[in-house]
């Protein structure tokens, strides 16, 4: 990857590293449906502002919007809802590990559907090394996990499959869409999807009142969805879905580091060993840009 790709990759990893924490906070009052609906709305507004600023044009043909009508919910609303719902019954450490299966699923799917993102021993070794690093990194938290439901874990794994499949499909069908619109368009269709679904799923929903809930919603919407999706689609088309989805490997180290800096948590050998393996996986997969 080029320097500009690494900058976008690291920025995206930093933004998304705290997502599981803010989801955990947000669902306490808002619930998964309301949280995702507001997240998509604020995400679209922020991504649209970027697109307008860059003078990117939104598509005007029904075929492209038909693609986004499917891509939006499958790449955003549905998997984010599944993770938010799953985190009501599983620990965030478990959710992080299960979410880290995204690049593994992507590797398999991309091999069969993309000619420029084939499976190779180099990629397999790199991805497995990174996954092992995440398991080691979070092993301390897993030891204390006592309330993790099987259905909650299944929801996060299903979300990972949605992320992987939609990333590969998006690479194939959104090449003709301009810049930031690639991220804004699926956020728009996801917003419509969630707010249309709201009366059916949450007929008596109420607006959140706690300030911390609105902080979570705004963080997840503006940064975690709007800006993040613009960066995500940029990387998806620049470096391919297998490499771009490896950003999920940054989430757990990022979360642990934030805990050390802001919460005074202790450094551990798991952080060093797991972190080294995650970095090593990124180096292996991207070594000399081989596919």
Short summary of the structure?
This protein has 291 residues and is mostly helical. It has 14 helices and no strands.
Question: In words, what does this structure look like?
Answer:
The radius of gyration is 18 Å and the shape is globular. The model has no long low-confidence stretch (mean pLDDT 85). The chain has helices spanning 3-17, 19-29, 31-53, 62-86, 92-99, 102-113, 121-137, 139-143, 150-173, 181-201, 211-239, 241-244, 251-262, 269-286. Helix 1 (3-17) runs antiparallel to helix 11 (211-239). The chain is built from 14 helices and no strands. It is mainly α. The protein has one domain.
Q: Please state roughly what percent of the residues sit in beta strands, choosing from under 5%, 5-15%, 15-25%, 25-35%, 35-45% or over 45%.
A: under 5%
**Which sequence of SSEs, written as H and E, runs from N to C?**
HHHHHHHHHHHHHH
Question: Low-confidence parts lasting 5 or more residues at pLDDT below 50?
Answer: none
Biggest sheet descriptor: none
> Strand tally, please?
0
Can you tell me the number of structural domains?
1
What portion of residues is helical?
A: over 70%
- Helix segment count? 14
Inertia-based shape: globular
From the N-terminal CA to the C-terminal CA, the straight-line distance is 11 Å
Strand-pairing-aware structural class: mainly alpha
- Taking all Cα atoms into account, the compactness measure Rg is 18 Å
């Amino acid at each position: 990857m080029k320097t500009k790709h690494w900058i976008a990759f690291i920025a995206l990893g930093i933004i998304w590293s705290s997502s599981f924490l803010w989801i955990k906070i947000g669902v306490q009052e808002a619930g998964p449906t309301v949280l995702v609906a507001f997240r998509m709305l604020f995400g679209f507004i922020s991504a649209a502002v970027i697109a307008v600023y860059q003078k990117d044009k939104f598509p005007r043909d029904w075929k492209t919007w038909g693609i986004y009508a499917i891509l939006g919910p499958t790449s955003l609303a549905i998997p984010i809802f599944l993770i938010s719902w799953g985190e009501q019954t599983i620990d965030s450490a478990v959710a992080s590990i299960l979410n880290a299966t995204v690049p593994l699923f992507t590797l398999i799917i991309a091999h069969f559907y993309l000619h420029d993102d084939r499976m190779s021993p180099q990629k397999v070794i790199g991805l497995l090394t990174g996954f092992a690093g995440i398991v080691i990194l979070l092993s301390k938290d897993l030891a204390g996990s006592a309330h993790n439901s099987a259905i909650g874990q299944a929801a996060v794994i299903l979300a990972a499959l949605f992320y992987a499949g939609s990333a590969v499909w998006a690479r194939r069908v959104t090449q003709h869409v301009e810049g930031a619109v690639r991220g804004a368009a699926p956020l728009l269709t996801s917003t419509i999807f969630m707010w249309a679904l709201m009366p059916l799923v949450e007929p008596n929903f109420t607006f959140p009142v706690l300030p911390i809930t609105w902080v979570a919603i705004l963080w997840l919407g503006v940064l975690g969805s709007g800006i993040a999706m613009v960066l995500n689609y940029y990387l998806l088309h620049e470096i391919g879905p297998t490499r771009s989805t490896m950003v999920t490997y940054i989430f757990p180290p990022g979360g642990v580091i934030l805990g050390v800096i802001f919460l005074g948590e202790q450094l551990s050998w798991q952080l060093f060993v797991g972190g080294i393996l995650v970095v090593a996986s990124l180096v292996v997969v991207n070594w000399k840009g081989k596919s």
